[in-house]
Amino acid sequence: MKTHYLSKAKALPLQIVLIVPFVIQIFAAVSLVGYLSFKNGQRAVNDLAGQLMDRSSDVVDEHLKSHLSIPQTLNQINADAIHRGILNVRDRQTLGKYFWDQMQAYDLTYIGIGLTTGEGLGAARYDGKTITIDDWTAKLPNNISTYATDNQGNRTQVNAKWTWNNFSESWYTQPMAAGKPIWAKIYTANFPTGPYITASASRPIYDSQNRLLGMIATDIHLLKLSDFLRSLDISKSGRVFLLERDGTLIASSGTEKPFVLVNQKIRRLQAINSSDPIIQNIARHLQTSGFGSITQDTDFQLEVQGKRHFVNVIPWRDKYGLDWLVVMSVPENTFMAQINANTQTTIALCLGALVVASVMGVFTSHWIVRPILRLNWASEAMASGNLNQTVKISGIRELNTLSNSFNYMAGQLHESFTALEKSKEELEERVEERTTELKNTLEELRRTQSQVIQSEKMSSLGQLVAGVAHEINNPVNFIHGNLDHIQEYTQNLLEFVQLYQQHNPNPIPEIEIAAEDMDLEFLQSDLPKLLSSMKVGTDRIRQIVLSLRNFSRIDEAEFKNVDIHEGIDSTLMILQHRLKAKPEQPEIEVIKDYGTVPPVECYAGQLNQVFMNILVNAIDALEENNTKRTYQEIKDNPSQIKIRTSVVNSMWLEVAIADNGVGISKEFQQRIFDPFFTTKPIGKGTGMGMSISYQIITEKHGGKLECFSTPGKGTEFIIQIPLRVRND
């Protein structure tokens, strides 16, 4: 009895057990939610700021790469044209129109050349709209004339004359000293049309004898970079700006320009002297460690005018010598204002929920405990042997049900055990049935999944091949189409030169020297051959592109009439790299025995996939067989693939593809079209190629695919599909 009372004294009332843990859990949950809400808000701000700056830095990087690659690429094209003699730097009229055309095509500020003689010519867009032509001589002063142009690039009138000296300009002297393509020092000037600040891409130019002619330069207006930075989707109070390694401002997303006017002269602006407090403070922070010491992406936080900013600094370089810094700044309050408001609201709601839940817990516990106590008393009485017990009905439906169950518990216990045993047996039977069904379903799912993956791979391959073929086709057609004109123009020029030589057999010494330098006789005989070779090359490329597009048939998802021979030939063209001769084995011979076959209604892309699978297996079999033979043995008995097409009973197309490889045993022939069955080593095949091919032929086209093979002699696959779709 003493032990009983001690245990009773240590136990806690049910009402306390229900209320206290409930209140403690709610209080802990509210505190944790508030704390996590604040921390998650801060973490979300950091992540969001990082994502915003990463996205913006990627956009800036891509824009700089694309925008700044144009001048260098254009310089290379023009330098190559001059080197090959396509452009004559002495022909001022033609050269001026050529540069005028390029200015029309690209958003540039200046394209021009400066010769070692001091002369030069260029096309300019000083005001950002009108294109003019500058033509200058070596004789100073007032040696340069600026011409207005019409809409064809012809010079109309002289707008101005001024003095220009190639040899004192950085775009001329710096690449001359470097001897290679570079970016010259940023150039500034205050023209009547407005301030002019550009970056010049320069490179030396040479004639066909590799003699230095001078320099060619292409300028881009740096104010356009500021326009681009202002267009970025960054907070209005954020900043993106570009710096040189000495801290000089190049461009920014603010309204401030990267220069100031002092006595009508442009002076570059140092970032630490910027009127923009954000740019100024970030620049001073970077100056403490040195602008030149930043060699990798750098992130830090900086307080500007009482507001914390997230700052990201990225070095940006190119292969022509540019070494800039891309700086991005995003203020924290852009993101934190709404997050702080949401956090306060969350905490207030949680505290309100705590109070309400606590009050409700007290009433609920009292309501629940009283019926449970009555059940407890009745249970103790039954445990003492007094089974004549009844429990009063309470206001809780579940407790009423419990009371009824308690009263009938003894009588139902035996029936429950009997029913449980029976249910157990039925459950075991159902589990076994479900297990068998699940195994079958998983096997079918595995097969279907592999088929889908294979189909998606072929679809992706078709899209890739079609895209590559399309992208190659346009420039190749352009080159091919212009070769005839070039050949005609070249023939006219050569005939003109011959006519000139006939009527003027004794030209002046300068012309004789020029003819000897360029080896005119060799040029007259070799140039037509060169053009003919180029035409043969473009014809070959066009044929390859046609084969790629025919194989991919990316736009042919429905039944369509096609020439089946085109599909076979396109597949062979793609597999040409595996058919051609290699150091260890001669070429695999392909023998075509094409019959007269009308257009066939089929899924062209899927049928090409079948041809690809069968031909790849044939090549694998031949290569496996060749590993057991010497080079001479292979040459004496060459590896062959025979392809035969014909029409059977005027209703069926038959395609037979045979090889003289290792062959397939009869045991394996019966399983060749089973999913996941393969005779290849692990890693060389999934065992789905022939299964999918069989499905394409039999299910998609209503045809037949059969395999006949003799071990040691070879294998033949015969495909039969109807010539026309049957409308059942």
- Tell me, what's the shape? flat
Mean pLDDT, all residues: 79
Number of strands: 23
- The CATH class designation of the largest domain is Alpha Beta
Could you tell me the strand content as a percent range? Answer: 15-25%
State the share of residues found in helices, binned by percent.
40-55%
Counted up, domains total 4
How many strands, what sense, and barrel or not for the largest sheet? 9 strands, antiparallel
CATH superfamily of the largest domain: Histidine kinase-like ATPase, C-terminal domain
CATH architecture of the largest domain: 2-Layer Sandwich
Tally the helices.
17
CATH topology of the largest domain: Heat Shock Protein 90
Structural class: alpha+beta
Distance between the termini: 93 Å
Note poorly predicted spans: 1-9
| Rg (C-alpha, Å) | 42 Å
Please describe the structure with a list of short key phrases separated by commas or semicolons.
728 residues, alpha+beta, Beta-Lactamase, 4 domains, 9-stranded antiparallel beta sheet, 5-stranded antiparallel beta sheet, 17 helices, 23 strands, 21% strand, flat, disordered N terminus
How would you characterize the overall build of this protein?
- The protein folds into four domains: 135 residues, PAS domain (Beta-Lactamase, 2-Layer Sandwich); 107 residues, PAS domain (Beta-Lactamase), CATH 3.30.450; 137 residues; 165 residues, Heat Shock Protein 90 (2-Layer Sandwich).
- The protein starts with a helix and ends in a 6-residue tail after the last strand.
- It is built from 17 helices and 23 strands.
- Strands 1, 2, 3, 4, 5, 6, 7, 8 and 9 form a nine-stranded antiparallel β-sheet that branches. Strands 11-10-16-15-14 form a five-stranded antiparallel β-sheet.
- By secondary structure, the chain is an alpha+beta fold.
- The N terminus is likely disordered.
- Strand 22 and strand 23 form a beta hairpin.
- Helix 9 packs antiparallel against helix 11 and helix 11 crosses helix 12.
